[in-house]
Amino acid sequence: MERALVERARRGDREAFAALVRDAADRLYAVAWRVLRDADEAEDAVQAALISMWDDLPALRDPERFDGWAYRLVVRAAYRQARKSRRREVTVRLLPADPVGEPDVAAGIADRDAIAHGFARLTVEQRAVLVLRFYAGLSVPEIARMLGIPVGTATSRLHYGLRAMRAVLEADARPAPGREDPG
Q1: What CATH number has the domain spanning 103-178?
Q2: How many C-beta atoms surround the C-beta of residue 130 within 10 A?
Q3: Mean pLDDT throughout 46-56?
Q4: How confident is the model at residue 48, as a pLDDT?
Q5: For a 10 Å CB count at each end of the chain, is N or C smaller?
């Protein structure tokens, strides 16, 4: 079904392109938001990516690779957006999660805050690789191919990004100096 939509959209069918966008928009926004950590910037990046998709779709050689191609365009748009804004503030927006059993709400919020704090310390390039690996579920070679970087560079960004996240999470988990742990 998607292949047929991609083929029609490649030939200029606006309705087919709109259907593709409806199917992919939430996933593309989620990737952009996770890379940029800002809702407005993520929306801008997705809009820029959608414009690029429409303009460049006739040149897409393999319709089966549409999803990876779309992710690549949104990540590149996120890179451009990050370079354009160059601001370092952290905006935390809680995304709904599927509750399982009786969740510990306070612990969940603390975990999300810690992850947001850790993500803010990463470079945009590291965030992109982590998002594509753990959110989109892509392999390192797929990420490298998608971003147009060597596999070693993707591996390095993943390694250093995870190491930085681990360091921030461990630092946040330690009690502050001068405070006794009541536990």
Answers
A1: 1.10.10.10
A2: 22
A3: 94
A4: 95
A5: C
